[in-house]
Design a protein that fits this description.
globular; 21 helices; 1% strand
Length: 509
């Protein structure tokens, strides 16, 4: 701590270019320990996020983040907007195809531009810093923390339900459990990247186990002849264009996470190999699981019962697995907790990269000197997520989240098309047919515009206003870099560095 304090006094503004000089002065001030280290010939790690994520952890991150709360909450919403069992199952399958196509586009982008930050890095490369800033502003301040909050609220709902049989858990209990989950997850991620990865791997195995249990139980019920709810499954359906769009919103919410690996490209071992492999293994696995789980639900529940059930997976467990039905809520809790952990892990990397590029405050790009984790970015995301717990209306948050998110998904697919013509010299280990990003752009336009045209609501206007409100901060603080703001942030940054023991990332080129 003393060495770090001396460094901060010597350098009032710790930028990346001076990190090596700081490291040398710090090492000289602790000569005895450095001599011992030299004798033992232990390599000194660069102060950057380490490449600790392999193929297995990459697959678990994708699968573990995708299979979370969506398959246990969204089935009701997809069925409500689609109108019947048949269209519901088709929409689930179509969502899987769309997620796979989108992930293939991201595989090309991630192996071509090997920077963390996901869409932020690709939009920067294709369209420049302004649109990238609007994306980071919207995602860091709203999309990522609200998504984290939604998942932890789902975790809290499933964790509390067994203690309140026959009624809904009190909101205060759900919110407190959600806040506690956020604090635990942020703490784990701040302590160690490897620890967070091990937690994610374990929870992914747990959620695949409960998916397997539900699917096998559904197959047994089908073998017994429980097919009434699946026959004539298209009768009486005439959903509107907007309703289909909302059904896709909620289905794609369950598939959200297919792009998570792109946020941690710099921490992925051999990304040109492991990224496309993880995508091609993980997403089809999730897609097949989702369709089979929905079929299993309908073997024991009518469409009306699915819509009325407060927790579809729990109702299924009570009817099929009794007296072992308690394993369903237990493993659903594991599942949602794992999804929240993956969401927190990747969201912090967006804030980290955005701070590094000067689009957010610099402290967000700093790394723990001892643990090599982006602690400030993790803590910032956790604090915002706790604020988003307050509304506690999951469906409204899902619709709001999906509207804004698909604007940027479409923009990223368009970036892939643009880069094909503007950056032909870039090496592309993975290259998808250009028609695929074209399809994603068209689907994104549909998912954004159809619900607005069908049923205009103020939340869409609020979302648009918020996105462009970032321009009010961009011009003075990012483009002009006003001096008074830098002078104001300098002592605040210094004190936060001392408090959290964090430093700017070292340039390794």
């Amino acid at each position: 701590m003393c060495a770090l304090y001396c460094v901060l006094n010597q350098q009032t503004e710790m930028d990346e270019g001076s990190i090596r000089r700081r490291k040398e002065s710090q090492n000289s001030s602790t000569g005895h320990s450095l001599d011992c280290q030299t004798k033992d010939q232990q390599p000194v790690k660069a102060i950057v996020l380490q490449k600790d994520i392999g193929l297995l952890s990459g697959i678990c991150l994708i699968v573990g983040t995708m299979i979370g709360s969506g398959i246990f909450i969204s089935p009701k919403a997809v069925l409500l907007y689609s109108g019947a069992v048949g269209p519901c199952l088709l929409i689930w399958a179509a969502c899987g195809v769309l997620a796979t196509l989108g992930a293939l586009c991201y595989a090309e982008l991630g192996t071509m531009i090997t920077k963390s930050g996901g869409e932020y890095s690709y939009i920067t490369e294709a369209f420049g810093p302004l649109l990238a800033y609007l994306y980071s502003w919207t995602s860091i301040m709203v999309l990522k923390p609200s998504s984290f909050a939604i998942i932890t609220l789902s975790f809290a709902e499933y964790a509390a339900t067994p203690f309140y049989p026959g009624c809904t858990p009190p909101l205060v209990v759900t919110k407190c459990l959600s806040a506690a989950a956020i604090i635990v997850i942020v703490t784990v991620n701040c302590l160690s990247v490897k620890l967070a990865s091990y937690v994610q791997n374990f929870l992914t195995v747990a959620k695949l186990f409960i998916i397997l249990v539900i699917v096998v139980a559904g197959m047994v019920m089908l073998a017994r002849g429980n097919t009434e709810n699946l026959s004539n499954s298209f009768e009486g359906t005439s959903p509107s264009i907007g309703a289909i769009g909302l059904a896709f919103y909620n289905g794609l919410w369950a598939y959200d996470g297919w792009n998570q690996l792109n946020f941690i490209t710099e921490e992925l071992k051999n990304p040109s190999r492991n990224m496309p492999l993880a995508i091609l293994i993980g997403i089809p696995l999730v897609s097949v699981s989702y369709v089979l789980v929905n079929v299993a639900y309908f073997t024991v529940m009518t469409a009306t019962e699915v819509l009325l059930s407060p927790a579809v997976a729990l109702t299924f467990g009570d009817r099929v697995l009794y007296p072992l039905s308690w394993i369903v809520p237990l493993f659903v809790v594991f599942s949602t907790f794992g999804s929240a952990n993956g969401s927190c892990f990747t969201a912090s990397r967006l804030a980290y990269v955005s701070g590094r590029e000067g689009h957010m405050i610099k402290i967000l790009s700093y790394i723990s000197l001892k643990r090599y984790t982006p602690a400030p970015a993790l803590i910032f995301n956790g604090i915002l997520s706790i604020f988003y717990i307050i509304p506690a209306d999951i469906n409204t948050l899902i619709n709001y989240f999906s509207f804004a998110q698909w604007v940027f998904y479409g923009l990223t697919a368009l970036a892939l098309i643009v880069l094909r013509f503007t950056r032909k010299e870039l090496h592309r280990p993975v290259k998808v047919p250009i028609v695929i990003p074209g399809v994603i752009v068209l689907v994104s336009c549909y998912l954004v515009l159809a619900p607005i045209i069908d049923k205009p609501e103020l939340e869409y206007l609020y979302c648009t206003i918020f996105i462009f409100s970032g321009l009010l901060l961009y011009y003075p603080f990012v483009h002009q870099k006003v001096n008074w703001a830098r002078k104001l942030m300098r002592p605040i940054t210094m004190h936060l560095q001392l408090l959290m023991e964090v430093v700017p990332p070292e340039k390794t080129e």
